[in-house]
Amino acid sequence: MSVYVRTAGVRDIPALQALLLETWHATYDALYGADVVAALTSRWHSEAALAAMLERERSDYLVADDGVRLCGCAYAAATGEDGRVVTLFQLYVLPLHQGRGIGGMLLEEIEQSFFESELLRLEVEEQNSRAIAFYRTQGYAEIGREVHAGEMARTVLIFEKSLV
């Protein structure tokens, strides 16, 4: 099965919602519980929220498409006034498609999309050892940690990679 990476569009929103719901439950249920994950995904990945991401200036929303369904997605946006720092907000691959290089394809395309930027930054849940290992193999270095409060109180690790 071949997978290609393309820019997401408005017509992809229902498939993106399904992909994000499945990947979030697979990734975060054990940490926060299925009810919390369901509540967060219904808000953070609503049709309106995803449409706003697609329309945001200086951003890129990519999907990995196998011709039948979306099997991965990545979303990043330039942050700050000068756009030199890009923040990766999403990188998710369906559990059955993980380990096939799809995450690496999406990440590489995101890195190349922001050719005027100097740095890509991201946060990873401290307990998400699989994602931490993935980003390290992709050349990202841990530069710190932050504690977030709220419904999903958690500690996140901050990773960065130079794009120049």
TrEMBL record:
PROSITE patterns: GNAT
Keyword Acyltransferase annotated: yes
Matching PANTHER family: AMINOALKYLPHOSPHONATE N-ACETYLTRANSFERASE-RELATED, AMINOALKYLPHOSPHONATE N-ACETYLTRANSFERASE-RELATED-RELATED
InterPro entries per UniProt: Acyl_CoA_acyltransferase, Bact_Acetyltransf, GNAT_dom
Gene Ontology molecular function: any one: acyltransferase activity, transferring groups other than amino-acyl groups
The protein, known as: GNAT family N-acetyltransferase
Organism: Tianweitania sediminis
SUPFAM superfamilies registered for this protein in UniProt: Acyl-CoA N-acyltransferases (Nat)
Domain of life of the native organism: Bacteria
Keyword line: Acyltransferase, Transferase
Ranges for domain N-acetyltransferase: 3-157
